[in-house]
Amino acid sequence: MEIDIKSHCTICDNRIYDFQTGAICGLTNEAPNFSQKCKYIKPEKKLEEKIVEVHTKLKLVTKTKTDTISHFIFFTILNILIVTVYYFLVTYDMYNGYVPGIRFVIVGSLCLLGIAIGPIHKYRRDYKIAKNNKERLDALLKIYKLDYEVSVDIINEAHGDYDVEKQVKIFRVG
Q1: How far apart, in Å, are the Cα atoms of 140 and each of 76, 108, 131?
Q2: Residue 57 phi/psi, 5° resolution?
Q3: What confidence category does residue 96 fall into, taking pLDDT thresholds of 50, 70 and 90?
């Protein structure tokens, strides 16, 4: 996995952000300029914040999995129920030779399928992004021979606002 040079700065406490030039090193006052790893990196508070951010987003996405599946099942069953009821009503009244409202049933059925499938796509997209962010962070920390243990609990979640109870332990490996 290719790691962007500026991603090293996202976990460094020496980073200073300037709106004109972007991220610069607080020690050298220059843009990051190294090949594999930075010799000035100081991964402490910003690293802990990044770990909590990545794991919180991943946990928030995984919390929505059962709701997403339930949503899909409900609207799929509702769709099947509407089409089945319509089918039996039409076959019961078949002697007329006219099938009333078939267009409305087809359009309604397709709309319900869209409502059923939309959240599945959103969940898969959000999960892929959150997992990718975690893998990038882990790969970055592997360069600096760092690892971590994290416990993130989301409490008081309401309307997109939430409080996080966290415990992070960062340690060197190897």
Answers
A1: 42, 49, 14
A2: -65, -40
A3: low
CA distances from 26 to 18, 140, 146, 156 (A): 11, 20, 22, 37
Distance in angstroms (rounded) separating the CA atoms of residues 35 and 105? 61
> Which residue bears the tokens 């010799």?
39
Residue 114, burial from CB neighbour count under 10 angstroms (0-12, 13-18, 19+): exposed
* pTM assigned to the model: 0.81
Tens digit of each residue's pLDDT (9 = 90 or more) over 124-136: 999 999 999 999 9
Domain ranges of the chain: 1-42, 43-172
| Strand partners of residue 148 | 170
